[in-house]
From TrEMBL:
Protein name: phosphoglycolate phosphatase
Domain of life from the UniProt record: Bacteria
This protein's record includes keyword Hydrolase: yes
The keyword Hydrolase appears for this protein: yes
Pfam families: Hydrolase
Amino acid sequence: MRYSVISFDLDGTLVDTAAEITEAVNRTLAEFGVPRQDEALITGFIGHGARHLMLRLLAHLLLQEPALADRLPPDAVLQRLDRHYQATAGRLAQPYAGARDTLQALRGAGVRVACLTNKEHRFATLVLRACRLDDCLDYVVGGDLLPQKKPDPAGLRHVLGVLGGQAHRAAHVGDAATDVETARAAGAQAWAVPWGYNGGESILLARPHRLFDSLPDIAEHVLAANRAGGFAPAMA
Ligand SMILES: O=C(O)COP(=O)(O)O
Ligand SMILES: [Mg+2]
């Protein structure tokens, strides 16, 4: 097996974004007179983009306190969230250990690397730039760039099309069941990391093909596989 493309999820895989998403959400709620919510609660809704997260949180809050409905018109809340997330995206983001080195090691070995995230593209760009990962990626696809989001395989197929890779020589790495489903549906290897946000559930329940304990382990695995599956260059 020789891998030609490795695609990475963003939130919970390359970068810990829980604190800045929580901050944007709480600054938004404060404008509507709603108390701060715990990071653990908010983190549980990460996975389908910031707007989707806010709508799920609103549904949760209204279930607990139906009278809040008058104070929280969804369109107005989403508009304010956009503004607050624009201000916090990349500010509190922490790349996981070895993120930059891993992407560079893969590229140095001739593997093309992408970031495929459900986070809105403009926010993903801010986060990647702040974490100095933008210049280590060959391609980035945010959740609002295509009509379909993960777990639809369209995004991963798009990445492979742009980078000239084939699914059977590709892997998508993620922290959520959504990522595993995306990779499998596209016919790529579904690789997972255990440190992210999967709605509080073990990612093993999603049955990834492989679980990695660190980002550098991914580069090591791919480089070893490519060395083993390598072939001598054709003689002139
Ligand atoms: O922003 C989100 O909710 C999810 O983003 P991810 O696809 O990078 O995990
Ligand atoms: Mg994720």
